[in-house]
Each structure stands twice: as structure tokens, then as C-alpha cells.
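Sequence only, no structure available. Ideas?
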Amino acid sequence: MKKIFNETINEILYYDTFENGLELYFMPKRGFESKYAVLGVDFGSNDLEFIPINEKEKIRVSDGIAHFLEHKMFEQPDESNAFDEFSKFGASANAFTSFTMTAYLFSATENFYPSLRHLINYVQTPYYTEENVNKEKGIIAQEINMYRDDPEWNVYMNCLKAMYASHHTSIDIAGSVESINKITPEELYKCYNTFYNPANMKLFVVGDLDEDELFNCVRENNNLERDFEKEIKRFMPSEQDGINTYRIEEKFAVSMPLFYIGYKDNPKDSEKTLDRLKKEISTDILFDIIFSESGDLHSQLYDSGLITGSIYGGYLSQKDYSYALASGSSNQPDLVKEKIDQYIDELRRNGIKKSDFEINKKKKIGGFLKSFDSISFIANNFLRYMFRGINFLDYLQVLKNIELSDIEDRLDNFFLKEKSVISIVSPKK
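Reply:
I predicted one. C-alpha cells follow.
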């Protein structure tokens, strides 16, 4: 077991890698009643093309299969459901699939170790049959149809489709009814055996626990016989630098138009991970300078009646794609985008006020330190960054080192009109 003490945030992190490649991270939180564990798999909805383990040829699996597999992990060979066991222990469990990862988690104030053993065991127990896979198709189809009727989800997904022509991030995480109907038990086992490889998984635990007891518990329950190659060959279609289409509009039963404005970024493979983190945080600060409720742009849009509330959003950076999203509601969303484009051009000409930079940087530091009171925030973000090769404990130091010149550099190279799109959901007449 190794130990890191981070002076910047005054936190200790214990970690180790077991013989089969599973990485365990533990952050003690003395005095916290609740404990939290999340087992993450480096497998998201974007992972559609890869070479399965022990095979040589690349395959393309069905859209939505990572999310489908997440659903199926809860069904056990004895026909029980993994959630039922958590309920017996008094633990609150959940799971989620994103574009880039799948996570299984629980929080508990008591019976933590029985719950942890259960988490590790059920995720190591795939059980897919023709019958139970076909049954799940109906359940997931209902979920997909529910999202199809959700204007918020559609205006978001259409914004991604407007930005990306080929990248899998423009494909709905759950897939479509047509794509999930093609999923077979064999396809699920290919994905499970390839990606639910211990060397492709990380477990993060946070709470008031003894580190030796925790590491022994995981070691005893971790299937050490499962040992695979760490490198998984994944493929992604080549994505153009420019946007796919400038504007997408759909009609829904909404009282006022909703909009998402997207700014496409093009991350470079050669960038070092800490440089990527610095760019991410710098862009997030710049986003707040431009769009925050206390800023000049918001005042102009709100006072003129162009928007009815705040503009929400931020910058998202992943391994092979990055973008910023700004969303809100307005009766004239195209005019809102025009005003935003004008404001950003003026900001480039006039420069960013040093006081605006310092206020927003301090606000971000304060928000980050406050968020360390949330054990789920710590665990989920740690895994999210670790799968990108970034130690989340470095975040605050990188944030503190950011200068006004870093923000100005991002303003010169990002939030460009020619790489921006707008997605609108407008009311049906």
C-alpha cells in the first residue's frame, strides 16, 4: 500500500494495484458518518469499435451496449437483483454509464464491508441469457422513448450532433430502440470480457475507515485469477476539425424555446495530461467570466429581455474530444447567440479585466475546497480524471498556478464563432 499526502488540500490518499491489475484508492474522511465506494470501468458508450480480448479482428458493437451491459450487471445467476442485497444492508446503491465510463456505487453508514464485498462480487458475475437480454430490451426501450420525449435531453444531444460528424459522442448513450434490439448475449460477453478486465477498472473508497482493513477486504474478494492484458485496442472514426452543422431545431411541447450553444475544441494527442488539465480549468474560468450571472453579458441579455434566467454550462474535456456548452431559454435564441458572438469579439478587442479574472479564480478555488465535503464528488471526479491519466489531487495546485495570460490565450483560440453551433427546441404551434 502506498500513501500520498497532498499539502495543498490537506488530504491523504492510500492506493495500490493488485496482482490482476485492479487499482484501489482510499481517501480517509475522519468523522464522516457516511462511506462511499465506486467501482469504475474504463468503458463508456463511445467504446463501440475495438478488438475483443483473445481475438485479432476489430468489431463494431451495437450503439448503447455499455449502458445495456450496466443494466444487466444487476441480474444475478440465482435470479436475484443486486439492488435487493444492498437494501438488506441498508446501503443506497446506483450505477451510471457516461460516454467514457461505467460506474457502480453505493453509500452506507453501516454494514459497509458486506456492501463492499457485494459490490465487488456482483460486478464480477456476468449473467446473460437470450431470455433475460430480450426482457431487458423492453425495459431499456421504454427508457429511450422517455428520453425521446424529453426536450432538455434532445436539445443537448442535438447540440452534440451539430458539433460532431463522426465521433461517437454524438450517439445517444442508451443507443436507439433499433440498435438495442440487435444486442445479443454473445455481444455482451465480448464487451464484458474485454472491458470488465480488472486492469481496466478502478475502485475508489472514501470515508472513516481503517486502511488496512479496507485493503485486506478488497484483496480477499477481488478475483485474482482474472488477469488480462492491460492494453485494449479501441478505435474511433476520424473527426473533422470543423463543426458538422451550424444549427439544429426541433419542435416540442415547451412554453418557451430552449437553446444549447456548443463550442467545439480539438484536443491534441501530444498534449501532456497536466497541460490538458490547465487548459480545462483555464477555459472553465473563462466560461464563468463570459457567462456568469454577475457578468456584463448576462446583464445585457437579461435586462433586454432576451433571456429569462441564467445561462448554464461549462467546459468538458475528455481523452479525444472537448467542448463548451452554454444553455438557457429565450424567445429569440438565434439573437442570443448573435449577441454572445458580438460580446466575445468585443472581449477579445478590449481584453479581460484583471479584477474579473481574480474574482472568478477565487470563486473557483472556494468552490473546489467546499466540494471536498462531498464524498461522492471526491470519488466520482477522482475516477473520471484518473481514467484520463490525471490525478485529481493535482487540480487545486494547477488552478492556483493559472495566470491571466492563460485565460487570454484561451480567449484567442477558443469560443470561436466558426466552431460554434446552436441547438434549439421550440414550441409546437
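Residues 372 and 378 are 6 Å apart (CA to CA).
Hope that gets you unstuck.
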